[in-house]
Write a sequence for this structure.
């Protein structure tokens, strides 16, 4: 009876309970169901011909397969064309999603995409060496373009693509998907609100699971432009600045990766004009799961995002406590971010939002990745001039 004195009045007589601001899923539920009378997702009207966005998806590889699923589940999107060289894969996807024959194209038929005025946008998830051609053809055909990184093989071609996008007045979105991850987004808000004070240190970890196929490694563009770019962009986005000096070390422990002149293990640092220092380690092969961590430290404290697991289950036995392993790979770890970045592409096409990743950012991230590759090759710190 000693706790009776702590009894409170009925919850019906208290202030109505509200969800916490961090519960974005509940907020989406309230707004989407019309239960929030004061908030709506958008304050602009969408033109009638853009209420359903017709898109063409190029390639069903690692990223393309994720995008197809998300396109099919998004009520704002309609898959008008699906371009893929593997006929067997096309037929399996056709059966899974009950797609008409008219949707399926082989690469030599892809001119249909660019000639069709009903296509509003294209999603490019092909090997890197095909990006530039598809980006430029899409922009010249007055299509909005969503492209997996990198936009092109080198800095000058990337700059040319963004110049063309400006001339054609079409959006060109480079898919740095980690910006759209809910936990990373919340961490950035806290940093930008000054919760840790002036940032002193940033640490990121990005370790692949499973090891990518050697066929993918061969056409990936190298670990700095394939993997490191995500961490570079993430750190610069969180801080709101770009580094002045970078240093990297890299090695290939896996013989097959060494044989194609790439690395499987990288460590690099970036120094910023503000004094902030970032440190990143990358591996192509983490056998315990997809290891993705971010930590920001300052004089007021620290904010961090730890690894995610399939569900918050703890099993306790005579052998101790155990949890499910980390999420296996990027499709599950960044499940929500892939959905969010595609929604952002829709918002841009429908005129509901400005492009959140400008060309200037992509060009700088590309330059930084190249500087890190140079540092790894020479063993010297590299100063970056923008």
């Amino acid at each position: 009876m000693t706790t009776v004195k702590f009894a409170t009045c009925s919850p019906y007589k208290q202030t109505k309970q509200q969800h916490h601001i961090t519960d974005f899923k509940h907020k989406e539920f309230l707004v989407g169901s019309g239960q929030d009378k004061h908030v709506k997702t958008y304050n602009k009207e969408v033109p009638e011909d853009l209420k359903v966005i017709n898109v063409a998806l190029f390639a069903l590889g690692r990223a393309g397969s994720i995008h197809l699923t998300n396109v099919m589940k998004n009520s704002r999107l309609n898959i008008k064309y699906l371009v893929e060289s593997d006929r067997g894969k096309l037929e399996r996807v056709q059966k899974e999603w009950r797609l008409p024959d008219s949707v399926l194209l082989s690469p030599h038929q892809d001119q249909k995409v660019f000639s069709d005025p009903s296509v509003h946008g294209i999603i490019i998830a092909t090997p890197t060496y095909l990006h530039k051609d598809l980006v430029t053809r899409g922009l010249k055909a007055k299509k909005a373009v969503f492209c997996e990184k990198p936009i092109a093989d080198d800095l000058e071609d990337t700059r040319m693509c963004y110049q063309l996008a400006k001339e054609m007045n079409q959006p060109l979105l480079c898919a740095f998907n980690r910006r759209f991850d809910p936990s990373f987004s919340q961490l950035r808000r806290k940093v930008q609100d000054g919760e840790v004070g002036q940032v002193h240190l940033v640490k990121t970890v990005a370790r692949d699971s499973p090891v990518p196929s050697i066929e993918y490694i061969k056409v990936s563009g190298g670990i700095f432009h394939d993997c490191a770019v995500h961490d570079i962009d993430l750190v610069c986005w969180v801080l709101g600045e770009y580094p002045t000096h970078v240093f990297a070390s890299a090695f290939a422990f896996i013989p097959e990766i060494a044989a194609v002149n790439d690395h499987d293990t990288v460590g690099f640092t970036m120094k910023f004009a503000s004094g902030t220092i970032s440190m990143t380690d990358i591996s192509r092969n983490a056998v315990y799961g997809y290891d993705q961590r971010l930590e920001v430290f300052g004089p007021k404290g620290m904010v961090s995002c730890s690894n995610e697991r399939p569900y918050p289950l703890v099993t306790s036995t005579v052998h101790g406590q155990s949890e499910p392993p980390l999420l296996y790979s990027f499709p599950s770890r960044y499940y929500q971010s892939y959905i969010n970045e595609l929604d952002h592409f829709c918002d841009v096409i429908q005129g509901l939002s400005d492009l959140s990743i400008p060309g200037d950012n992509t060009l700088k991230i590309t330059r930084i990745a190249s500087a890190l590759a140079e540092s790894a090759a020479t063993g010297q710190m590299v100063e970056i001039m923008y």
